[in-house]
Write a structure and sequence with these properties.
This is Transposase. It comes from Candidatus Kentrum sp. TC. With 185 residues, the chain is α+β, with helices and mostly antiparallel strands. The protein contains six helices and five strands; from the N terminus they run ββαααβββααα. It is globular.
Length: 185
């Protein structure tokens, strides 16, 4: 971060259990065989909400892929821990995400106290199912559409459905964040 390279050199302990087989110690600061620590991944994901992914990579001397991977970890954790109760109103929007007729259907929660992205899909099945419902006001739909386009442009560097989905959930999902192990005063 300050131009100082830091390397963790640690050999995890291996245990040969007669019933389970060979097991490797879980390290609390990293997941599996990932190259980034958990704290650094959450740090990059937090900055990726404010800046484009390319700018975050340049600012912290890392690659675009590491920023994408950090956002992916944050979105995956948030989707597993979000609570979907008390939804009173939903909004459905379709945005174009590639050249031609390639659209994404976005389903939003638009309650008075909470606005968040609930679902993203390539199909228009959801839009057809609720076509008889009361329509969303034009100004509200335009606001959500403009916000999703802004965050789609900020993510820069990808054209796949998976990375578009991750970027939109990260920006518009209003997902929970885990408690930090470090407290800053």
């Amino acid at each position: 971060m300050w131009g100082i390279k830091v390397f963790f050199v640690y050999t995890p302990r291996r245990v040969n259990c007669p019933s389970c087989g060979i097991r490797v110690e879980q390290m609390p600061w990293v997941n599996g065989k990932y190259r980034l620590t958990n704290a650094y991944s959450w740090f990059l994901a937090g900055w990726a909400k404010r800046l484009s992914w390319k700018e975050v990579g340049e600012a912290f001397h890392t690659t675009w892929y590491h920023v994408f991977f950090s956002v992916h970890i944050a979105v995956t954790w948030g989707l597993e821990h979000r609570e979907l109760f008390g939804i009173q109103a939903i909004g459905i929007n379709e945005i174009q995400w590639r050249r031609g007729h390639h659209y994404l259907t976005l389903v939003y929660r638009i309650d008075a106290g909470c606005r968040r992205l609930l679902w993203i899909g390539k199909s228009t099945v959801v839009a057809q199912l609720v076509s008889g419902q009361r329509p969303i006001l034009q100004w509200h739909r335009r606001g959500l559409e403009q916000e999703s386009k802004t965050h789609d442009r900020k993510a820069y560097g990808f054209r796949t459905y998976h990375s578009t989905e991750i970027a939109l959930y990260h920006a518009l999902g209003n997902l929970p964040v885990p408690e930090s192990t470090h407290k800053f005063f």
